Amino acid sequence: MNKADLLTLTQWLSPSYPVGAFSFSHGLETAISDGRIATSDDLKDWLVSLIENGSGWSDLVLLCAAHRAKSPSDLQTISELAEALCPSKERLAETLQQGAAFARTTNAIWGGDTGPSAYPVAVGSAAGARNICLETTAYLYIHSFTSNLVSAAIRLIPLGQTDGQACLNLLAPICETTAQKALTATLDDIGTCAFMSDIASMTHEILPVRIFQS
């Protein structure tokens, strides 16, 4: 992978890229409000489940499929599957809003006419269109996904910055092995069982006090 592509990918998945990721907690706000997540160990266990058996895994498979897609109709099919996999209205809004914002900014700067789609599909298709290494894209995507949720937890638990970074460091091998597994997976391998995360996303909209959109 050349350095220019690495820097582009790093820019795309940086917290400063204007996709609005900071405003979503993926249901984490509910779990913290309910007392299910109160420590860094609780957070780590929750995120391990999400990465290996929840939306982290399905996002990676969708991203890889989008990277390999041969036509706009293939991408449309993959994005529709991504939407169907969302367990709640807020999680659907989360992936569609981020995907649309990513496509809009990326098209404006790098050129192209990629339409709005689910976020992992938008990232995967943009990287594929520019022949950016799929393996590195998958690694950085799942790290960005995890980092955003750790950042949300730092604000919500509250969790100290050092504890948050220690948690992210412990999760790095999980991110790596899950991304590596997704590289050889197909859409038929998608399946999730992170039910508490799904339920947390469903009930987030009725929290009496909310900081995040999901």
Give the overall silhouette: globular
Give the structural class: mainly alpha
- Annotation field: number of helices: 10
Question: What is the N-to-C order of secondary-structure elements (H for helix, E for strand)?
Answer: HHHHHHHHHH
Radius of gyration: 16 Å
Enumerate the spans where pLDDT stays under 50 for 5 or more consecutive residues.
none
The total beta strand count reads 0
- Helix coverage percent of residues? 55-70%
Compute the average pLDDT.
Answer: 96
Largest beta-sheet characterization: none
Strand content: under 5%
Cα(first) to Cα(last) distance is 35 Å
Offer a concise description of the structure.
The chain has helices spanning 3-12, 28-33, 40-53, 55-68, 72-85, 89-110, 119-129, 134-156, 161-182, 195-203. With 214 residues, the protein is an all-alpha fold. Helix 5 packs antiparallel against helix 7 (119-129).
